[in-house]
Amino acid sequence: MDFHALSKKYEKEYVENVMELLEIPSVFEKDSMYPYGKPIHDALEKMLSIGQDDGFITKNVDGHGGHIEFGEGDEIIGVLGHLDVVPAGAGWTTPPFEPTIRDGKLYARGAQDDKGPVMAAYIALKLLKEEGFKPKKKIRLILGTDEERDWKGIDYYFKKELMPSLGFTPDASFPVIHAEKGLLDSYITYPVPENKGETKVVSVHGGDRLNMVPDEAVAWIESPLNIEKVFNDYSAEYKLEGTVKSAAGRYEVIVKGNAVHASKPEEGLNAITALLRFLQSLPLNGEYESFIQKIYKAFETTDGKGLNVKQMDEVSGPLTSNLGSIEMDEQTCKLGFNLRYPVSADYSAIDQELNDFAAKNKGRYEVYDHLASIHLEKDHPFVKTLLSVYNKVTGEEAEVKTMGGATYARALEAGVAFGALFDDSPDTAHQKDEHVRITDMIKAIEIYAESLYELTR
């Protein structure tokens, strides 16, 4: 089959289908009837109806997920995507749920994450079916509904349905991401020592998502000093952005940072650690000052050194650490942080080290969420097939990659992330004016169709 020519024939159908899907504002809502709200239910039903109309076997698994199936045999090759999206947010050029094409780019919430790639994978299945291909294995396009929150949908799905022997998710980038770091969201709660000095930090708060570098942190300070002048002098010296306001005998200090995803915290500016650094410049009481210093030192760098967990491996690179939230008053301080550890790391050893670290300062450590790392060897036949097809289609000599993010590949017993972004694709997931290049999606159709052909013929 000439997959290159065939994929181009489906461009019009791809655009029409995906625009209908993107019109559905499939953001999570609490609902007594639908597990994740009616909009997500509508998106699932829409996708299944497209598959049913095209003659595929479809199944809705109690509203928690579903699949579109093609082929025969006992073995299942899975393609896992999701139909839920994050809230649209403000600042869009055009309405986020009114998909728009401008300069060959398709704009809408979900265009990149993950409805656009899901539809590309679906069109790949339809291309194979309409060309008369008879897969010797079942191909299941599995549709998730709760990926952007806590994965309850896909967990429920796999309690009811068979696990594919192998699979991929079109929810990252090409060529093949064969390893994903372990993810750990944790909290440490400390008692705050009494501050007996004249300058007192009444409260500190900042950040609300552990998987993002916080872009703002706020402290309320009581002091006989002119804190506005102190901060302005400090910010001029250290090129720190922020503002100071005085109200009711207190100063409100707001520090601005640069938000980036926690998988690459070194590329951002953490507003919380920047604020903690500023607080150390104030004349605080000795024990209290030491407490602020210890918190700052724990997260001063993003390599885990301050937490005694610094490490790396050749497969997936270094551990990263992100202080994602702080809530502190004059009695307690609760820190929330995200770690992404190498695939060869010993999680139990990291867990013990963090417990010991917290205990040294009379803190209480608790794990909020943990996703173990995944790793398919680069010479695994499945990985080699996907990489070979990618290189054939693109003319590249690319090698496999690793990432710090989390995809549905973790829901599989053996899986990888495979597309749908290319090295030069705009990465706009979760941002205003989210979009994909239509040419990228057509190329993804070609890659997915040929890959599934090779895996199941």
Structural write-up:
It contains 11 helices and 24 strands. The chain is elongated, with a radius of gyration of 25 Å. It is of the alpha+beta class and 457 residues long. The longest helix is centred in the last third of the chain and has 19 residues, at 438-456. The chain starts with a helix and ends with a helix. Helices cover 31% and strands 26% of the residues. The strands form 6 sheets. Strands 13-14-12-11-17-18-10-19 form an 8-stranded antiparallel sheet, covered by helices on one side. The protein has a 6-stranded mixed sheet with strand order 1-2-6-3-7-22.
Q: In what range is the share of β-strand residues?
A: 25-35%
What's the number of extended β-strand segments?
A: 24
As a percent range, the share of helical residues equals: 25-40%
**CA gyration radius, whole angstroms:** 25 Å
The strands making up the biggest β-sheet line up spatially as: 13-14-12-11-17-18-10-19
Could you name the ranges where pLDDT drops below 50 across 5 or more consecutive residues? none
Separation of the first and last Cα atoms: 12 Å
- Principal-axes geometry comes out as elongated
Describe the main β-sheet briefly.
8 strands, antiparallel
The computed structural class is alpha+beta
- Overall residue-averaged pLDDT value: 96
Number of helices: 11
